[in-house]
Write a sequence for this structure.
């Protein structure tokens, strides 16, 4: 229960009036004495203290009517007793927290105010914030620290990856922001319930500066999940590197800022394991990995089983497609498709690709005989027609 205490500052409880003049010596009674100050009490209010639990994205506001605020102290009502800072309005008729609040926390608000004749009041309130069943983070992909020194390629979508499914996608999307310099129109598209991607109609212009924000702290993501905190990141797009893998010629042709700089024989996926068609984006690079067919169901005992260390790997989809060194298929490179979906290159050519391509760079595969790369398959974003992408799918 809120507590209030009054005190008088100065001698205002009694007023003495001395009367002199030509009239009667009998004093007039029954009416106020002119000049006597009327002592009106101030009224202090903290709206959040009388309402349901406060969303911590909203501030605690203290108001006063009939006077001015002198002192406001907000602390957590626990052993930590953490102070929350705030600011007075210019007229000291209100005070608002400026430090962020936390979920599931009770705050004590101690207020002192005074009226025009300095009669003061002290009052204490409590405010409790929402306790969500679960919170989720909006992580950025790629992690900024991974690409800080090299930038991203022209094909890299902007990605927020939520740590829990988002049911209220349309509402959350309103709180996602992207700015580009130079300006390039783009749109958000949900590849699944946890991942939302942003891209433009065409690949980013080299040198573009990109800033992204997810202002989701306190937002209801749906099904009892709330945003854990806001997040933002900055990226710089480096030179354009695009490789075109054509299954009809068995050549991988490389373009730097639109100019052809290399061409090399290759081998795509065999008829039984065709490579996906469409633009692929490099999402990771590793000096070597162990490729095991059992990861997609072809295990020991099957004549098509393999487990092999593979060098100079550029991942171009999440289901096992890479550009990599394949010394075992050099005889087929340039003439036939024999891989399990990857782009096979001779060791020297694979080294050249590994030295020049990085996260966000593009490998476009055509005439492979395979299906289009799915939008959800890191990153099939560019396979979606722009008109469909621009329309968005937050309500689907």
């Amino acid at each position: 229960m809120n507590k209030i205490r009054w005190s008088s500052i100065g001698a205002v409880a009694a007023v003495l009036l001395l009367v002199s003049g030509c009239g009667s010596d009998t004093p007039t009674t029954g009416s106020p004495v002119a000049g006597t100050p009327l002592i009106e009490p101030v009224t202090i209010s903290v709206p959040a203290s009388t309402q349901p639990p406060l969303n911590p994205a909203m501030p605690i506001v203290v108001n006063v009517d009939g006077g001015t605020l002198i002192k406001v102290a907000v602390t957590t009502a626990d052993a930590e007793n953490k102070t929350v800072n705030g600011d007075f309005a210019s007229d000291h008729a209100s005070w608002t927290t400026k430090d962020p609040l936390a979920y599931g926390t009770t705050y004590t608000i101690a207020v002192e105010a005074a009226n025009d004749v300095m009669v003061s009041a002290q009052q204490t309130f409590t405010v409790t914030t929402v306790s969500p069943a679960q919170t989720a983070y909006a992580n950025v992909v790629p992690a900024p620290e991974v690409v800080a020194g090299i930038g991203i390629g022209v094909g890299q979508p902007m990605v927020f990856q939520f740590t829990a499914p988002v049911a209220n996608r349309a509402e959350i999307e309103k709180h996602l922001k992207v700015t580009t310099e130079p300006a390039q129109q783009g749109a958000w598209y949900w590849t699944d319930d946890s991942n939302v991607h942003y891209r433009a109609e065409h690949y980013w212009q080299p040198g573009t500066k990109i800033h992204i924000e997810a202002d989701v702290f306190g937002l209801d993501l749906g099904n009892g999940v709330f945003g854990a905190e806001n997040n933002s990141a900055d990226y710089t797009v480096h030179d354009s590197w695009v490789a075109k893998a054509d299954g009809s010629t068995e050549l991988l042709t490389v373009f730097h800022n639109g100019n052809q700089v290399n061409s090399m024989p290759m081998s795509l996926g065999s008829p039984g394991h065709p490579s996906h068609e469409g633009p692929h984006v490099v999402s990771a690079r590793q000096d070597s990995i162990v490729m095991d067919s059992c990861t997609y169901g072809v295990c020991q005992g099957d004549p098509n089983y393999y487990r092999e260390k593979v060098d100079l790997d550029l991942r171009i989809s999440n289901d096992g497609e890479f550009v990599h060194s394949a010394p075992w298929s050099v005889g087929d490179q340039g003439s036939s498709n024999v891989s399990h979906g990857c782009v096979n290159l001779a060791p020297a050519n694979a080294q050249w690709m590994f030295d020049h391509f990085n996260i966000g760079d593009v490998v476009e595969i055509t005439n492979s005989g395979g299906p289009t790369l799915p939008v959800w398959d890191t990153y099939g974003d560019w396979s979606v027609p722009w008109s469909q992408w621009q329309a968005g799918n937050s309500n689907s």
